[in-house]
Design goal:
By secondary structure, the protein is mainly α. 90% of the residues lie in helices and 0% in strands. It has helices at residues 3-42, 48-82, 84-88. It is elongated. The relative contact order is 0.14. The model has no long low-confidence stretch (mean pLDDT 89).
Length: 89
Amino acid sequence: MTIDQSIELMQGMLYTALFVGAPVILVAFAVGLLISIFQAATQIHEMTLTFIPKIVATIIALIIFGSWMFRKIVDYTQELLKNLITLIQ
């Protein structure tokens, strides 16, 4: 395995991880931002108020995007295993 192949392999892995994790992270970020704006506007600073909506939104995002995320990981793994012979040589 050459340095270029290993860099390409790591780049593909990082892009896949970024694309797979992005929907859930962005949903949690957006909900956290909305809750923070709500807390600033109403002067309610309850610590548990931020966790419950984020957990619920994250679970809903996983339900919605879960099959797509799984498909992306499976596609990357299949491509990696298909190219395994060329990477070893």
